[in-house]
Amino acid sequence: MVDMSSAVQRAEAFYDSAFRKFGDLAASPGAVLQRYIALAGRIVRIEISAGAMERAVMPALAHLIVPAVAEPELVLCVWDSESTGWPSMSPGWGPEAYRREGYISGFNDTRFHTGMQFEPIILRMIDMKHRRAMYWTADALKLPYWEIGAPLRPLLHEWLQRVGMVAIHGGAVGRADGGVFLAGAGGQGKSNVALACLNSDLLYASDDFCFLSQSPEWTVHSLYCTGKMAGGDLIRHPHLRGAESNPDRLDREKALFFLNDKFTERLIRQMPLSAVLLPRVIGQGPSEIAPVASAVAHKAIAMSTIELSRWTGGHTLRKVSELLRERPCYELRVGASIDEVPPLLARLLSDLRQTQQQHAQQ
User: Fold this and answer.
1) Going from the N-terminus, what domains does the chain have, and what CATH number goes with each?
2) pLDDT by 10s per residue, the chain, length 362
3) Cα distance between residue 58 and residue 359, in whole Å
4) Strands 329-334 and 270-281: what pairing?
5) How far apart are CA 211 and CA 189, in angstroms?
6) CA dist., res. 11 & res. 191, Å (int)
7) How many other C-beta atoms lie within 10 A of the C-beta of residue 249?
8) C-alpha span between 332 and 228 (Å, rounded)
9) DSSP state of 98
10) What are the residues whose beta carbons fall under 8 Å from the beta carbon of 95, sequence distance 6 or more?
11) 166, 320 Cβ separation under 8 angstroms
12) How far apart are CA 286 and CA 39, in angstroms?
C-alpha cells in the first residue's frame, strides 16, 4: 500500500528544491524577465529566462500580453540550462515512476501535476496549492518548430482543465458576436480554412489549439497567435507570402507564422461559440456547408483529442458532449478555391445570428 503522506512529502520536497533552484537563477540581475498574459480573464505571470528561452516561448503568446498585476492566478517559471548556464534538473524519482504520457507516479494528484516529455526533454510541474508552475528544458535552441509554435501546451492544457476550462485541439474563426470551432484530425484542412480567413473580414483565434469556457455561454478562447501549414499549400494563400518564420526549412518543416505583427487587427482573443464545423478538403467544384450529425463531430473531436491531448482527454470529451448538444454541427466541404470559404463562413454566422435573435424575441 502506498503511504500517501510520504508521497506528498516527496513531491513537496522535489517541488521546493526545483523552485529554489529557479529562485537562485532569478536572483541574478537581468537573468529572468516577467511577462503577464490573460487566459479567459485569468492572469498568469510568466517568469522566463532572458535570451533564447524568451525568444522560443513569448512570440506565440504575444497577443495575450497584459499589464502587470499584484496577484496573478498562476506564476509560471520557464527556463533552460544551456542558455543560462544553470544546472540541469535532476528527476526526484526512479525509472519505475514513469507512466503513460509522461506522467510521474507519486507526483500527480489534486494538488500536483508532474510530467516529462522526451525528444526534446521537457519537465513540466504544477503546484495548485501554491499557484506555481515550472517548465524546464535542457536547451531552448533545440526546441522543435511545433513546440515553438505552441509553447507550454501540455502544461497550460493541464492547468486550464484544473481551473474549469476545456483545452481542445482545433481552430476558431468568426466575429466578436460569434464564431465557429474548426474540428477534426490533422490534415483535414483546419489550418487552411483558418488562415484563409486572415484575408477576409472574419477574425482569427486559432488554427490548431485553443480552449473553451462554458459559463455564462460557450466561448472559444485563443491560446496562440501562430499558424502552421504545409509548404505546398502556400500558393493558395498569397496574403501569407513572406510571413513564414522558417522559409529556409520548408523542405522538412511546416511553414510557421507568427501573426501578431502583420495581422494584429485580424486576431481575436475570445468570441461566443455559435457552431462546430468539420472541414473536409474535396479539392474540386464549389465549396459548401451542410449539416452533419453531432455524433460525427464527436468522433472527429475524440480522435484528434486522444491523439494530441491524452492527458486531458477524458475531461475534454465529457465537455465536448455537452457542447454538441447545445450547438449545431456542419461539414465544410472545401472545393477548388479556398477563397470561397470565408464568405461561406460569414454567411453561416449571419444566418445563425439571425436565428438566435428570432428565438430571443419569441
Assistant:
1) 4-162 (no CATH), 166-361 (3.40.50.300)
2) 455 577 789 999 999 999 999 999 999 999 999 999 999 999 999 999 999 999 999 999 999 999 999 999 999 999 999 999 999 998 889 989 998 778 899 999 999 999 999 889 999 999 999 999 999 999 999 999 999 999 999 999 999 999 999 989 899 999 999 999 999 877 789 999 999 999 999 999 999 999 999 989 999 999 999 999 999 999 999 999 999 999 999 999 999 999 999 999 999 999 999 999 999 999 999 999 999 999 999 988 887 776 665 555 677 888 899 999 999 999 999 999 999 999 999 999 999 999 888 777 77
3) 43
4) parallel
5) 19
6) 40
7) 14
8) 20
9) B
10) none
11) yes
12) 38
Cβ contact 169:309 at 8 Å: yes
pTM: 0.94
| Distance from C-alpha of 137 to C-alpha of 142, rounded to nearest angstrom | 9
Helices (runs of H) and strands (runs of E) counted in the chain: 8, 17
DSSP, collapsed to helix, strand or coil, labels residue 135 as: strand
Give the Cα separation of 278 and 166 in Å (integer).
Answer: 19
Cis peptide before 29 (omega within 30 of 0): no
310 with 169: CB under 8 angstroms?
no
The sign of the CA dihedral 208, 175, 42, 213 is: negative
Backbone angles phi, psi at 70, to 5 degrees: -75, -40
